[in-house]
Amino acid sequence: MTGEAKVTTEGIELKRNERKWTKPLWAAGWSGIPNIIIEKQQALGLSALDINIILYLSTFWWKQRDLPHPSVERIAEAVGVKPRTVQKRMAGLEKAGLMHRIERKLSKGGNSTNSYSFEGLIKEATPFALEKLKQREENEKREKDRLARKKPRLAVVGGKES
Questions:
Q1: Which domains does the chain have, with CATH numbers?
Q2: Residue 66 forms beta bridges with which residues?
Q3: pTM surpassing 0.85?
Q4: What's the CA gap between 37 and 22, in Å, rounded?
Q5: pLDDT digits (tens, 9 = 90+) for 50-71
Q6: Which parts of 11-155 are beta strand (E)?
């Protein structure tokens, strides 16, 4: 974050998230996922397992066009279920229009692991995000108006009001 305050501990500069999670945990890797997807998971029709799968896939998604493509087995191992369970949940996400599986072919024939697109999830979550942003803006305006209505206090100088 630009202009973010930093703290130095034993000569090591720590950023805000490093201070929260510790430097080793943060240095081992982190993921970015919009909070609205977590907050509105029920409204989006996502189960706890769906969220775990999405969170795991997000660890592989760093560039918009470079979609995540870990194997079903790897996903299953990470979230603690059988590969067939992951396949069923992904099929459900796809049927709901929240995820799209894209087959990847090997140059010598055969298939590689699928890529996963979240365009549908992004589309479905966007109205919730816009609603939250509008509410936040209204709350900020109300607070600003409230502060503007407050009468300024008189300063007391040397025991006398001025």
A1: 1-30 (no CATH), 33-135 (1.10.10.10)
A2: 63
A3: no
A4: 25
A5: 999 999 999 988 777 888 888 9
A6: 12-14, 100-102, 115-117
